[in-house]
């Protein structure tokens, strides 16, 4: 029982990452019809926004400490971050400690701009081009973005730890009457789950309740008609692209403390996020979110010892197996609309 | 006994009874029009005839054989060709290739692994295609990309593709919808010519009364999923029920 | 099988017969006058450095490359000479190898066996490399070792830790300086017993491929010999980036030690996840919960950041070692590149020098002569202390380091502290050990190519 | 000739000349010059050009003609390689049975996977093929390489061991893949002054096979079957209402392209008897998609060009390191030399991915039809220079006759 609860919790947590990435991707891919292979790169750039902010906050001046030596036996250069010098050691340390949550604010304008620039500078010329061309150009872009990050930050993962107060784990089991240590869960993962829920809710509310959202939804359903009504749908689609980039980026910022960012993390998620979107059904935002959580939970269960001893290797293939089963039983995924990317 | 016999066909979509108790008999070599107001079930009926939909009840017999449960390509192989509301042609292919494909389909059946032959060596097929293009007055456009044709030419090409298979029944779904008057008249003339010169039955779904009364020698009126009346054009014209149900509305 | 003893010359003859009328075919690109593959004829000799330059291990590969370049400098008499001054064999004079200036070519393994073989082949076929060195995974090492055996050149493995490299996949033309999974287990066991007691229950998370399995096997064997119990061994998919679903059940399983048989990015993430779950703050079975990472590297430590504090593991080498060879190498490397060398860098550096030295002592580049010179070679002064290249399986035997994540590192480079230098005798095993292919494992015949 | 029209015959002859003369064409620089770095005429890379050319030509039969974008074709390549190595392990190092088995096995697997995946179209089809391939990769990498049932030898790759049965192996035959005794590694090196050219048995085997399958691809493109496949891409609805069953056509195309992939995999194993699981990963499937699009989807020669382009960068650019750069620019004054090297540094060696990514974008932005379009434009430009304006607008598809 507790083990099942634990895996459900874990699945929700995994699923919230999948759902967030798939949400952004489906805004671009499922509705604008652009096969965006650079979406994973947007996620990665988000995570590196946090790394960058952490680096900025840690910008330091050096002073030589004669009492200590470095690995070559020379006097050690001690670094003091400017932030600590300006705000005092304590306040400075708190700011540095909270760099990841701060990076959320830092990342929003950056990601909106990245999305805007990408759409205006590149993608808009590819709306009418074949999907094959879109794949090639966005894949090329993804490689370039990735290599640029690698050039500046290296290939090794970089830790972006959560604030001290949000490290460690909670014993949730005790709260609901289980034995101690039965259901232990990291605080930051709970934060991630809540954060994902808020973002997903926010995007849905935005599309549901604002006039902007209504026009965009109408444009998704029938772009030409909305265009005929004299509404500049292109501009709104640009903004949607920016929002999709921001969603992916924020997913990345918050993901950093879970698993340290590296330059190829986007590629690791790319295939998976396409699977999630398609399993959810093309053109359906709720479908993408639902599929994200569903695959997250199934993946968690498949990794239990019980599952892997029953069917060896199930944890390796579960996502793909489920994708095949769903696509064969439901022709357009969970909630897909007819005619979107079917030819 | 007509070449196409529709008996007691019913079709339901969720709560909507799209068709009920449809009976229809299309006589060989006639031009039979099916008319009715929007939502009368014309398209649903047509889709039941070509295998896109399977009716919930009733039977559809073509030349004594049931078409129900067969895939569209099998029904085509039985001798029914369909012309769509918006011309459905192979836009990426040339006009000539468009014409070759139905002839290959007629000769080789639904599938043949003719991967090592060369199209250019199929003299017989090419001759037939060229002949049909001549008849459709399109021979000069044979190397054109068919997507670049005018709407009227696309329609001609599509009809030509259907005729090249020598079908026994040609189904047309509002063949002049969205056409300019001149194109419409051309299409009427073409269809007239076809029905006179060829040993072919035509069933046509049409909205445009001008087209219907220029062509049809038998008319079925559908309303709310049921045939209201089936008669000759002149009787339909005078039928008060039809006027009320249909002509009155759309006039 | 007897037909395996056919020599390359025999192959040549039949090849010529089969291709009657065709000019005499030669294996690989060597002019027909050569006695062996890529025999250097001019004033230079070319070494091939095959390291990952793209993908997750690119930084590791870069470190290896820096060390290899340093070694080339030292061989050519440039720089401060590094370990040439401390090496017990004095055959190398700093005038290249056998008087020929050393040049090198580089390639990208991408940490894929296919790509690694492709780039090794290009170095052999196109650039005329006489030896291949480097790599950062066992799959690549075994694949490239096999290729070098077929091609008739020497392979000096870089970072490869799986038992198979010098176990069931050992080759006459291949040599491994790095330690292996068995040695990790043997070195760690006594330290674990001392630090954690003999009554522990271990939970293994293992990367689901060959290296992971051999390491798990080795660690399970050596810890169970201590009296530990193995609660569970769970295989994790290689492509995993998040291990939370594997970590979550650990606390509830009755285990009090978590062993992470992961390397590189896998290890960084699984360790980070384990710390997130607060495992190290917990008490299980009345004991403090512990985590062990049997194979450490400096880059992994950097990637895992603060999470490695107090976590035990083993290493082939660490720059903090205080012997003469190590000091010379660290000085030379640090002054040139501004950072201390990693243990894979040290392995690659040592391998280049060892190869060059063997050629000098053999007086020939002929791979078979080099093999003979390296087999059973005892040396010191390259940083690891007294070392033996065992003739039976071409594995180096030397002390193994047990290290721990430092509690209070003073800078980015002393995040690991040496706990114990396990003497070589403790990690030595017979060449026909069952984990190393048993009695059937054989080096085969030396191949000199052309 | 051979049942081809003049244009196709010319194309086939050009391809034949290019492949047969590749050892000369790819080694244009003297072997000790600074530019020798750009020489690609060594056996391994030449083999790769041709093998991946075969893979891409086959992929294009599916993708270029029917428009069905498979994201899992690398699985068939991998299956081909594994089959071939198993042939080596069990029977003999002769490449003919090995290649035959790889084609057959890839055909069987593609029949199965295609039968299931082709129930869906568009992106749903792509994801189904991707899922099958990723499952194959995951299984090959770990589950199927466990000690009890070792089918793939996992991470290291399947290879021939001394204790394998090799039932038909005889003394006197090479201990490497061979064609009736002629080792695939046999190379004759021709030294001509400063130049040196390699003639490798394995390469010529691949080249001959490539010419055969390229010829078959032309036949398929020009056949009624090929026209039907293009009809599938153009309008499936019309196809079905024309009495044609599109499913067996697409399935046949899928199986044919799967067999091409299997052939490529078999040849890879025949050139180098080791089959790694990575060649089944999605990145490998993606690579052949990129090769096809980069070269020109739906054209005959495009995929071959795309394959050559990508493999060239992977193998040549990744080997240019700083000391090579310094070698090239040694003639510059010191400061300039360092500057130029520093500018080029991010794009070569470990930065070869970056260059490749930039080139992908440039090609797709400026040459919408891929490299073939570049060639067409170049040709038109030359013609325009020479003969004025008598050029027809470049016809998109050739007439069927």
Automatic annotation (TrEMBL), chain A:
- Which residues fall in a coiled-coil region? none
Q: What is its main location?
A: membrane
Q: Where in the cell is it found?
A: Cell membrane
Protein family: Belongs to the binding-protein-dependent transport system permease family. LivHM subfamily.
Entries under PANTHER family matching the protein: ABC TRANSPORTER ATP-BINDING PROTEIN, BRANCHED-CHAIN AMINO ACID TRANSPORT SYSTEM PERMEASE PROTEIN LIVH
Sorted alphabetically, the keyword list is: Amino-acid transport, Cell membrane, Membrane, Transmembrane, Transmembrane helix, Transport
Q: Which InterPro entries match?
A: ABC_transp_permease, BCAA_transport_permease
Topological category with respect to the lipid bilayer: Multi-pass membrane protein
State the protein's name. Branched-chain amino acid ABC transporter permease
Listed transmembrane segments: 15-35, 91-114, 190-216, 237-258, 270-298, 310-328
Does the record's keyword annotation contain Transferase? no
UniProtKB/TrEMBL annotation, chain B:
Record carries keyword Membrane: no
Q: Name one GO molecular function term.
A: ATP binding
Q: Name one Pfam family in it.
A: ABC_tran
The question of whether Nucleotide-binding is a record keyword is answered with yes
The protein's UniProt keywords, in alphabetical order, are: ATP-binding, Nucleotide-binding, Transport
* Domain ABC transporter: residue ranges: 4-249
Which domain of life, per UniProt?
A: Bacteria
The name of this protein is ABC transporter ATP-binding protein
Organism listed in the record: Ruegeria sediminis
From TrEMBL, chain C:
Q: Which InterPro entries match?
A: BCAA_transport (IPR051010), Leu-bd (IPR028081), Peripla_BP_I (IPR028082), TAT_signal (IPR006311)
Q: What is the superkingdom listed in this entry's lineage?
A: Bacteria
Database matches in Gene3D superfamilies: 3.40.50.2300
Alphabetical UniProt keywords: Amino-acid transport, Signal, Transport
Q: Which PROSITE patterns match?
A: TAT
Would you indicate the residue range of the signal peptide? 1-35
What family, per the record?
Belongs to the leucine-binding protein family.
**PANTHER family tied to this protein:** LEUCINE-SPECIFIC-BINDING PROTEIN, PERIPLASMIC BINDING PROTEIN OF ABC TRANSPORTER FOR NATURAL AMINO ACIDS
In Swiss-Prot or TrEMBL terms, this protein is called ABC transporter substrate-binding protein
Can you name the source organism? Ruegeria sediminis
UniProtKB/TrEMBL annotation, chain D:
Q: What is this protein called?
A: Branched-chain amino acid ABC transporter permease
Q: What's the chief localization of this chain?
A: membrane
UniProt subcellular location: Cell membrane
Q: How does it sit in the membrane?
A: Multi-pass membrane protein
- Is Cell membrane tagged as a keyword? yes
Q: Where are the transmembrane segments?
A: 12-29, 49-71, 91-116, 123-144, 201-221, 248-268, 288-313, 325-348, 354-376
Its keywords, alphabetically, are:
Cell membrane, Membrane, Transmembrane, Transmembrane helix
Q: Which organism is it from?
A: Ruegeria sediminis
Record bears the keyword Transferase: no
Pfam families hit by this protein: BPD_transp_2
């Amino acid at each position: 029982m507790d083990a099942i609860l634990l895996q459900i919790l874990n699945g929700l947590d995994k699923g919230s990452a999948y759902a967030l990435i798939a949400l952004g991707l489906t805004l671009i891919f499922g509705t604008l019809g652009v096969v965006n292979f650079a979406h994973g790169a947007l996620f990665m750039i988000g995570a590196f926004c946090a790394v960058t902010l952490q680096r900025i906050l840690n910008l330091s001046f050096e002073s030589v400490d004669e009492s200590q030596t470095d690995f070559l036996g020379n006097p050690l250069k001690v670094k003091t971050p400017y932030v600590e010098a300006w705000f005092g050691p304590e306040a400075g340390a708190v700011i540095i400690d909270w760099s990841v949550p701060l990076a959320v604010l830092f990342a929003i304008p950056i990601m909106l701009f990245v999305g805007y620039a990408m759409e205006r500078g590149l993608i808009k010329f590819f709306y009418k081009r074949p999907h094959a061309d879109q794949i090639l150009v966005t894949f090329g872009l993804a490689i370039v973005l990735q290599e640029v990050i690698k050039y500046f930050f290296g290939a090794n993962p970089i830790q972006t730890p959560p604030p001290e107060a949000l490290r460690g784990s909670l014993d949730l089991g005790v709260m609901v009457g289980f034995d101690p240590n039965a259901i232990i869960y990291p605080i930051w993962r709970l934060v991630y789950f809540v954060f994902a829920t808020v973002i997903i809710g926010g995007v849905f509310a935005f599309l549901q309740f604002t006039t902007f959202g209504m026009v965009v939804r109408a444009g998704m359903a029938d772009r030409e008609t909305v265009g005929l009504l004299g509404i500049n749908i292109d501009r709104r689609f640009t903004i949607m692209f920016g929002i999709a980039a921001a969603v992916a980026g924020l997913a990345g910022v918050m993901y950093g403390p879970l698993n340290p960012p590296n330059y190829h993390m986007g590629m690791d998620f790319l295939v998976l996020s396409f699977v999630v979107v398609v399993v959810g059904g093309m053109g359906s935002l709720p479908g993408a979110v639902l599929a994200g959580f569903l695959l997250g939970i199934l993946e968690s269960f498949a990794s239990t010892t019980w599952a892997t001893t029953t069917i060896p290797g199930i944890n390796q293939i579960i996502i793909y197996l489920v994708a095949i089963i769903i696509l064969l039983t439901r022709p357009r995924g969970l909630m897909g609309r007819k005619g979107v990317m079917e030819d | 006994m007509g070449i196409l016999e529709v008996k007691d066909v019913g079709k339901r979509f969720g709560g909507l009874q799209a068709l009920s108790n449809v009976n229809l008999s299309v006589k060989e070599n006639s031009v039979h029009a099916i008319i009715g107001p929007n939502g009368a079930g014309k398209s649903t009926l047509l889709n039941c005839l070509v295998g896109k939909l399977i009716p919930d009840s009733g039977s559809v017999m073509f030349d004594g054989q049931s078409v129900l449960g067969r895939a569209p390509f099998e029904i085509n192989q039985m001798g029914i060709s369909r012309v769509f509301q918006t011309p459905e042609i192979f836009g990426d292919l040339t006009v000539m290739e468009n014409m070759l494909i139905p002839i290959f389909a007629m000769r080789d059946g639904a599938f043949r692994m003719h991967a090592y032959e060369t199209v250019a060596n199929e003299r017989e097929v090419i001759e037939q295609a060229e002949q049909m293009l001549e008849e459709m007055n399109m021979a000069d456009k044979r190397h054109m990309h068919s997507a670049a044709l005018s709407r009227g030419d696309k329609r001609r090409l599509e009809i030509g593709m259907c005729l090249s298979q020598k079908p026994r029944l040609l189904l047309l779904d509002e063949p002049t919808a969205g056409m300019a008057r001149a194109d419409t008249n051309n299409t009427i003339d073409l269809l007239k010519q076809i029905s006179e010169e060829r040993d072919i039955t035509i069933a046509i779904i049409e909205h445009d009364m001008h087209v219907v009364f220029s062509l049809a020698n038998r008319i079925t009126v559908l309303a709310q999923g049921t045939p209201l009346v089936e008669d000759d054009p002149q009787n339909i014209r005078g039928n008060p029920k039809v006027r009320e149900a249909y002509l009155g509305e759309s006039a | 099988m007897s037909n395996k003893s056919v020599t390359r010359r025999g192959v040549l003859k039949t090849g010529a017969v089969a291709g009657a009328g065709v000019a005499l075919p030669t294996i690989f690109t060597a002019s027909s006058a050569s006695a062996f593959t890529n025999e250097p004829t001019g004033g230079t000799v070319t070494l091939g450095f095959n390291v990952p330059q793209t993908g997750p291990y690119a930084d590791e590969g870069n470190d290896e490359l820096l060390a290899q370049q340093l070694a080339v400098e030292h061989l050519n008499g440039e720089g401060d000479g590094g370990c040439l001054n401390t090496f017990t064999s004095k055959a190398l004079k700093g005038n290249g190898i056998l008087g020929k200036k050393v040049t090198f070519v580089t390639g990208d393994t991408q940490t894929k066996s296919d790509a690694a073989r492709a780039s090794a082949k290009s170095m052999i076929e196109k650039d005329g490399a006489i030896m291949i060195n480097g790599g950062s995974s066992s799959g690549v090492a075994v694949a490239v070792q096999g290729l070098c055996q077929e091609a008739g050149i020497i392979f000096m493995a870089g970072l490869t830790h799986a038992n198979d490299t010098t176990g069931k996949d050992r080759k006459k033309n291949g040599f491994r300086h790095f330690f292996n999974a068995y040695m990790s287990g043997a070195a760690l066991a006594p330290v674990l017993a001392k630090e954690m007691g003999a009554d522990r229950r271990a939970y293994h998370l293992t990367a689901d491929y060959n290296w992971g399995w051999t390491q798990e096997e080795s660690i399970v064997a050596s810890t169970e010999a201590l009296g530990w119990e193995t609660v569970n061994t769970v295989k994790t998919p290689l492509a995993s980036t998040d291990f939370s679903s594997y970590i979550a059940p650990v606390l509830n399983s009755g285990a009090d030690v978590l062993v992470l048989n992961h390397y590189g990015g896998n290890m960084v993430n699984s360790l980070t996840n384990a710390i997130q779950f607060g495992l190290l703050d917990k008490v299980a079975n009345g004991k403090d919960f512990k985590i062990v990472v049997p194979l450490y590297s400096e880059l992994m430590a950097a990637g895992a950041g603060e999470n490695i504090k107090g976590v035990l593991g083993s290493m082939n080498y660490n720059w903090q070692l205080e012997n003469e060879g190590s000091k010379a190498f660290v000085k030379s490397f640090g002054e040139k590149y501004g950072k201390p060398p990693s243990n894979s860098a040290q392995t690659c550096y040592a391998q280049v020098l060892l190869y060059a030295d063997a050629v000098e002592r053999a007086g020939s580049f002929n791979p078979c002569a080099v093999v003979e010179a390296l087999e059973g070679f005892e040396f010191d002064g390259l940083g690891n202390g007294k070392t033996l290249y065992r003739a039976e399986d071409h594995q180096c035997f030397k002390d193994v380091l047990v290290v721990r994540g430092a509690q209070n590192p003073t800078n980015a480079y002393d995040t690991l502290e040496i706990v114990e230098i396990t003497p070589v005798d403790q990690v030595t095993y017979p060449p026909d050990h069952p984990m190393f292919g048993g009695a059937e494992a054989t080096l085969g015949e030396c191949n000199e190519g052309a | 000739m051979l049942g081809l029209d003049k244009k196709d015959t010319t194309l086939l002859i050009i391809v034949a000349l290019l492949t047969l003369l590749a050892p000369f064409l790819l080694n244009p620089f003297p072997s000790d010059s600074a530019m020798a770095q750009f020489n690609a005429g060594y056996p391994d890379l030449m083999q790769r050009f041709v093998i991946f050319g075969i893979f891409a030509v086959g992929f294009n039969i599916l993708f270029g003609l029917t428009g069905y974008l498979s994201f899992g074709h690398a699985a068939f390549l991998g299956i081909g390689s594994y089959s071939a190595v198993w042939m080596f392990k069990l029977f003999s190092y002769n490449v003919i049975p090995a290649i035959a088995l790889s084609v057959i096995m890839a055909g069987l697997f593609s029949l199965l996977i295609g039968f299931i995946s082709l129930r869906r179209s568009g992106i749903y089809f792509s994801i189904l093929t991707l899922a099958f391939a990723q499952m194959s990769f995951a299984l090959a990498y770990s589950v199927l390489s466990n000690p009890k049932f070792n089918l793939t030898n996992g991470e290291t790759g399947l290879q021939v061991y001394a204790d394998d049965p090799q039932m038909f192996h005889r003394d006197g035959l090479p201990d490497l893949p061979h064609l009736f005794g002629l080792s695939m590694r046999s190379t004759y090196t021709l030294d001509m002054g400063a130049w040196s050219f390699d003639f490798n048995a394995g390469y010529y085997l691949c080249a001959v096979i490539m010419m055969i399958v390229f010829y078959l691809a032309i036949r398929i493109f020009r056949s009624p079957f090929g026209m039907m496949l293009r009809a599938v891409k153009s309008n499936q609805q019309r196809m079905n209402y024309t009495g044609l069953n599109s499913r067996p056509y697409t399935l046949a195309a899928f199986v044919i392209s799967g067999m091409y992939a299997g052939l490529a995999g078999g040849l890879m194993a025949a050139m180098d008897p080791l089959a790694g699981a990575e060649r089944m990963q999605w990145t490998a499937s993606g690579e052949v998609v990129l090769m096809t699009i980069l070269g020109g989807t739906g054209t005959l020669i495009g995929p071959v060009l795309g394959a050559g382009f990508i493999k060239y960068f992977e193998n040549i650019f990744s080997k240019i390191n700083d000391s090579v750069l310094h070698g090239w620019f040694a003639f510059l004054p010191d400061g300039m030399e360092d500057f130029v090297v520093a500018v080029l540094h991010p794009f070569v060696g470990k930065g070869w991915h970056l260059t490749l990514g930039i080139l992908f974008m440039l090609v797709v932005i400026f040459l919408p039809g891929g490299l073939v379009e570049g060639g067409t434009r170049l040709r038109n430009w030359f013609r325009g220079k020479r003969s004025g304006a008598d050029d027809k607008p470049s016809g998109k598809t050739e007439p069927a006759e």
